[in-house]
Design brief:
This is Tungsten formylmethanofuran dehydrogenase. This protein is α+β, with helices and mostly antiparallel strands. It has 2 helices and 4 strands; from the N terminus they run βαββαβ. The protein binds iron/sulfur cluster (2 copies).
Length: 72
């Protein structure tokens, strides 16, 4: 299990792409799949590279991002 991890609540995501743009590690993309609302949801390409910065969470207009941070 990676130390920092991001989860997309697929059916809450509106596919706006803001998180894709703002992730400093460039590990988010829009999926080819379509969610229950008809949007292409965000997906995390490489959890291992997530630094838990929370930018995707902060920029997301929906409550679609959940960040799990390493405990220190
Ligand atoms: S927490 Fe930061 S590094 Fe991780 S997916 Fe979100 S924006 Fe990218
Ligand atoms: S910012 Fe939020 S709504 Fe927009 S694509 Fe990312 S997870 Fe989906």
């Amino acid at each position: 299990m990676p130390k920092n991890r991001t989860e997309v609540l697929v059916d809450v995501c509106k596919g706006c792409g803001l998180c894709v743009e703002f992730c400093p590690k460039k590990i988010i993309r829009l999926s080819d799949d379509i969610n229950s609302s008809g949007y292409h949801p965000a997906e995390i390409i490489d959890q291992e590279k997530c630094i838990g910065c929370g930018f995707c969470y902060l920029i997301c207009p929906e409550p679609a991002m959940v960040i799990y941070r390493e405990e220190r």
